[in-house]
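Session log. Operator J.P. requested a structure for one protein chain; no other inputs attached. Running the standard single-chain path with token output.
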Amino acid sequence: MTRAEARRRARRGEPVSGGTPALGRNQLIAAGVVALAVVAGLIWFGNANAAPTPTASFTPGPSGSAARAATHERGDASAPVTIDAADVRGYLGRQRFFFEAADRTAIPGVATGLAVTGIGGDVLFIEASREDADTDGLTLTGQLGDVMKESAQIALSYVRSHAAELGIEPGKLHGRFHVHVPAGAVPKDGPSAGVTMTTALVSLLTDTPVRPTVGMTGEVTLQGRVLPIGGLKQKVLAAHRAGLTEVILPKRNEGDLEDVPDQVREQMTFHVAEEVADVLDVALRAEAAPAASDAA
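Structure written below.
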């Protein structure tokens, strides 16, 4: 805008700034109401399995318009409006995240892994099964890449060569094994699922379920070493979003936890592992039995 034009606008009482005009008071109040609705929605989704659901209230104007909420400050009578669970679904849409780890890991042979995708971190449930057969073999499904297939082969070789110390009966080491990673339409690759595949196989062969609160990541070697991985921040955030409270990570990735937001770190427990044995000690640890109540 030229100086001459600015002077003409000033004489007419028009704004001389060329930027976006500032929001009016009512507009700011309306924006605050929408933000309140969103926060209530986040609270509801984050506590989908808890009851009762907290409610958030705000006071609109007599006409029902949020933009006229300022009338409340002048003492005008107005009825409060409550945002409940049904309203939140209307504002935010259907629920997109589910806490399914407990159901998926309830049976032996399923472990919860963490991965990085093109849109951030994600949780992978890796399943293992075994059937008697005349010849030994390994079947891999779930659209796995070459590196991930090699991780499964390494995991099975490690389990077979360390069966005695793992408490696995020799007869269970023979037959056909099947390792599957659901969401078969999505290509998957990378070495970081090594510890998860190993844990799923040991869980299967020892008939011990994996703890449902634990997610894990790390590459594994034939000697049982746990090697560092990438994308730890995204993986931890995915674990937190999925309702997991513990994460097993390679020892050499411990420093990467500094990249994880403080509020997430404070709500989670991290276990560092140098060997597969460190992973199994946490993932297959027996849950403490609840104390028996006294008889009445």
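Operator note: Residues 48-55, 58-75, 288-296 have pLDDT under 50 and may be disordered.
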